[in-house]
Protein: Rho-GAP domain-containing protein
Organism: Tulasnella calospora MUT 4182
Amino acid sequence: MTDMLRRSIGKFRESYVSKTRKADELEDDANFIARDNVSDAGSEKSPEDPEKLHPHATIRRTPSTAERLHARLKAVADRARSPLRHPHMPEPKDTMEMFAEQNRQMHGEKESAGGAGDDAKSDGTATPTATLDKGKGKEIVSESPTILSPAQRNANLPDLSVTIPKPSTDIKFGEASLPASEVSALLFRAQQEIGVRTVKFTLLGEYEHCFTGEEFVVWLKMNVKELQGILDFAEEAAVALTEEYGALRRIGELGNKFENSPTAFYQFRPKAFNLKSVLQKASQDSVPTDTVTPSPISASIKRSNTMVNYLVKAVQSATAPGPPEDPPHVKARNAARAADVEYRKAVRQLDEHRCRVEERIDDTLKALQRWEMDRLKAVQTVLQQYQEIVASLHNPISASDERASLLTMSFIPENDLKALIEGYRTGPFRPDPKIYESITHETDSSFGIDLRKWAGEGAFGPMRSIDSMDQLNATAPRDLPPVLTGALQALRRAYGKLPSDEERRKSWIYEVPLVAVHQLRSSVNSVPFDMPIDDAIFDNHDPPVIASLVKLWLLELNPPITLWDGWEDVKKLYPAVGADVDDGAEDRDQHFEEELKNILIKLPIVGLKVLDLLVSHLKE
């Protein structure tokens, strides 16, 4: 479960980083284009006034794009409604002519009958004359009064009927290709011959008629001749039957991916034994059954109406009032913010899950230790009682009885338990928190941080020129982490309520349940990173819990306070607990000071500040 959450955290972070970079690039492009537009606007000239160009011209409003499209679509719709129009039927007016006529009606203008007027004959009958265009006459060609019939369409039209091929029922799996009925019979035979069994999964229950992926691949290799006895061909066939045709179902895992493994379990689906009907049903759903020969006229009308409806909807959506659409860089930034929120939420969930797992492991190990101690003490009690009963009897085996009593007295349960733990230990408690790593701002966690990054650039340089605490305080880049200073101040307030220094010392050595420490850690971590921590959060807990929180904060630092390369030097410098130390060796003290100085020189400034604060607190 933890590994799955860690992989999902990696995916969330990759999505967050990629979307943030895309948003940054689009914003840079938008800013660049905006600067170019500003520079171009300064060099452009304003268009000249049309009244200055034509003083006597009448200014009329020109049609907008939406109005021209609407008029054109109306004309197309009229043609689509009457495809068999008579040849002498007047054509629909052009878009500009329709708009000009509407414009003339609005302004009250009267359209003249001719360019220079009509010429009247002496007999009173009017004859049409050519319309003059700037002094030039234009001949009017009269149309023939003969009524024409519609043009005959070509009767030899191509056959538009579609012949649908009959779908194939063969199944290709790997290098083999067999009819669906034979594949179903093959799978039924596999169910009979493979040793199916009942498998039990945690939280899911029991599943019957299960087999492993390795068993299925081996069976295909031995029983399908088309696979030529090659293991790779058999594995490809199993993958095709499982993932493409869905004949097998995986048990205990998400998805239906096939694996050639003895730990991957599968079941035959019911449709595996009737693949022919499944394929026929799929082909009937995807291919129409009837063959239709469309009429050319109806097809033309249908296409025209479809295009008209599409363009009308496009114009209406373009001209309809509505909220303006965001530019691409704004959309990308919103997507990056959403990915940031998802990534932050996933990191918090992973951290909570890790704390719950650590608490469960801690409780389990402590319970096992308590049970083992009770068992060893019970064995010691039984041996002592047996020895007392044997010693009260008068028998000739007194010598062996004395040796047995010595062995019973040398049996100490605490030492045996310690030896058992040291023999089976795997390492010290080392929590590994997963923190939120942002590109645009600092982390929002107080635990698992890197002190050098938290303190800024001044914390990365080694301490080679500082000889006193005054210089250290003067060169400190920032204040210390608020979780450390707040916890130590809360301990100082709690020390006043304790009766003696011995009780204050015990606050640091008490064994505190990890559940209580994690509760206080969660309360502190919920405070925004740049805000001070309220004293009431610490005052509601006992001093041992606050001291354990300080130790947990030091354990979760990444890297540790002495850095990874300085940890081994510190272990060599300080002897183990209980080791023999020569107190009268002055040379050893001088050597100790030199080695300690060399170690402290390598530490960053913020590390020295934290060590100074902790040592001063313990000394006081």
About this structure: The chain has 22 helices and six strands. The beta strands are 170-173, 176-179, 197-201, 205-212, 248-251, 265-268. The first strand starts at residue 170 and ends at 173.
